[in-house]
Amino acid sequence: MDTTYKYRFDRRTLYLTLIHLIVFGVLGVLLYRLYEGGYLSAWFTSFVVALIALMALSIPRRIVVGAEKVEVRCLLDITEIRRSEIASVRRVDRKEMKWIVPLFGACGFFGYYGHFLDLKRPERIRIYASQWRDFVEIVDIYDERLYVSCSDPDRLVAELMPAGGNRSEEED
Fold first, then answer.
1. What is the CA angle 144-90-15, rounded to 5?
2. pTM above the 0.90 mark?
3. Averaged pLDDT, groups of 10, the chain, 172 residues long
């Protein structure tokens, strides 16, 4: 039987999304007024609509933990990790996330998802979160790091813990 962990937006994420939409709207109106419907305002409007559609389709909706794999389901795509390929799982404190900067993805616009850069250990990571807290780090056997947030991170860590516990650093 599959276990589902839902994403919940916090107030900060909702406020940041609203601010983004207001800024896009104000810029669109200003360009329309300045260029009176010229190609620049049409290009900007098309770009912003495409960007909003792409971001909206990439919003993480839920984490589904099955017997064989873990799925992070977004509106458009599914990220899968085989349970046999999970090397370690741990809860991450919010303070550890201060060294994370976005490379390509959303940072507050309907959540936090996409590719990010960890400045502490210069490497690319993926994040699927609806709020900037309650993070769980999933490291696979290929040393790819995936961060997710959910409503019950402790239960997710307990359920995903590999048989025999997390892999130690000496095994690398």
1. 85
2. no
3. 86 90 85 75 81 83 92 89 93 90 85 91 91 91 92 90 68 48
